[in-house]
Amino acid sequence: MSHQGKGKAPAVTIEDGSDDDIDNMDFPLPMVPASAFPGAPERNIRYVEDSSQFKSWICLYPIYFDRNRSVQDGRRVGKDLAVDRPRAQHLAEAVSDLHLQLLFEPEKIHPRDFLNPGRVKVQLKNPDGSPALASIPNRNTLYQRVAKLLPETMQSVTLDEPDFTEEEIRKQLKQLMEEPPAPKPTPAPTMRSNAAPRALESSTPATPSKKAAKAEKGGKKGKKNARLV
C-alpha cells in the first residue's frame, strides 16, 4: 500500500511586510442596506471625509480570522487562534482594546467574503517609520494580538445577522457588470479608538488595555514569520 500523500502539508509562511492587492483595494459592496451593520458601536467615533491619509495603514478583514476559511482563501492566523465567523465590528473593538488608531470602513469587502462586509485599517507605524506600539512591530504580531482578543470580544459584542442573501449580492454584481453605475462619493468611513485622541503625527507609543495584556500573556507571542496551518 502506498503511503504517499500522508505526510504533513507544508506550513504556509507569511513574511512580515508582505502585501497583496487585496489589502488596499477598494471593492465596495453595491447597495448594502444599513441593516448589514447592526449593532455597530457608536462611542468615540469621528467622521472623516478623505481616507487617502490612511492608505499606508494595515487592513484587517474578518476572513483573516475565520476558522471556516483556509489559508488559501485568505485566513491569516492559525486555526488555534481563529474564531467562527467574526465581523468587522468585532475587529474594530479588538483593535480599540490595543489602543491603536483605527479606521472602520463598513462598506468595504473582501472579494472572497461577500456576505461579511466591512474592514478595519490600523496605524501600525508612525510617520517616521517607528512602531505605533512597541509590542506590535509588524503585521503578523498584529494579526495574533487581535485574534487573541476576539473570543472575549465576540462574547461581549453581539450582532444581528445581515438581512441580505448571497443570491441578492450576486444579482447586484451582475447588474454592475452589465451596466456600471456613474461614479458617486463613497460614504465617509469612521475612525474609532478607545484611547484618548492624539494627532496622527504623534510618535508617542500607546498602551494596550488590561484585557489586551491579559490575552497576550495567555498565548504565544507573534513572530516575524507566522507559520499557519
From TrEMBL:
Domain of life: Eukaryota
GO biological process, one term: SRP-dependent cotranslational protein targeting to membrane, signal sequence recognition
GO molecular function list: 7S RNA binding
GO cellular component, one term: signal recognition particle, endoplasmic reticulum targeting
Locations listed in the record: Cytoplasm
Bias-annotated ranges (Basic residues): 220-229
Protein name, as recorded: Signal recognition particle subunit
Organism for this UniProt entry: Tieghemiomyces parasiticus
